[in-house]
Design brief:
This protein is an alpha/beta fold and 185 residues long. It has helices at residues 10-22, 41-48, 66-75, 84-90, 99-107, 109-119, 122-129, 139-147, 153-164, 172-184, and strands at residues 3-7, 30-34, 56-62, 92-95.
């Protein structure tokens, strides 16, 4: 049976596919669907879930959007979902605060800055850090914000950050999602 992975956006899809490749995990029987925002989760769950195509589903969302995913799962007849553990048993995992934040913390700021240098953006990041509003923020907060300042930058860096990731330090939501998928194989 095909598994459908629901992720919020293109950067999440790229990060997940890159990590699967690095872990030598075959996703050929897996359809990774970018929701273009988790507010579209209910529609996708209805399409792929038990009242639609009845495919095995799993997914990833940010903590701020967890309620949308919960609601969609419950409306599809997969609830009630009282706590996060209920979602995880269904194969849906939550990033704290979001996937970029998880990757930054797992990789560490010096290594993320090395990735910026490799991609030719370290000088732009240094200029960004010197902006008055950024000066009081931590480097992690600045990096997180920097990735969201230009359209397409999150997607651009998704693969590069996962490539820099020590496979022994994979963020829990990503590892748990890929482990869930592997259990079905």
């Amino acid at each position: 049976m095909q598994t459908v992975l629901l992720v919020e956006g293109a950067s999440d899809r790229i990060a997940l596919e890159t990590l699967a490749r690095r872990r030598n995990q075959d996703l050929t029987e897996t359809l990774v669907v970018s929701l273009d925002g988790v507010t579209n989760a209910s529609k996708a769950i209805a399409e792929f879930g038990p009242r639609g195509r009845d495919l095995r589903m799993a997914g990833l969302c940010d903590v701020g959007e967890e309620r949308y995913l919960r609601g969609g799962l419950e409306r599809a007849g997969l609830g009630p979902i009282q706590r996060r553990g209920d979602m995880e048993r269904l194969g849906f995992f939550v990033s704290e605060a979001d996937l970029e934040d998880e990757l930054i913390r797992s990789i560490g700021t010096p290594a993320v800055e090395d990735v910026l240098a490799d991609e030719g953006d370290l000088l732009a990041f240094r200029v960004f850090q010197n902006q008055p509003f950024q000066r009081s923020r931590t480097t992690e907060q600045q990096l997180h914000r920097f990735f969201g300042t230009t359209s397409g930058r999150k997607a651009q860096y998704a693969a590069a950050l996962v490539e820099a990731l020590d496979l022994g330090r994979v963020p829990r939501p990503l590892a748990a999602l890929l482990d869930f998928v592997a259990q079905a194989a």
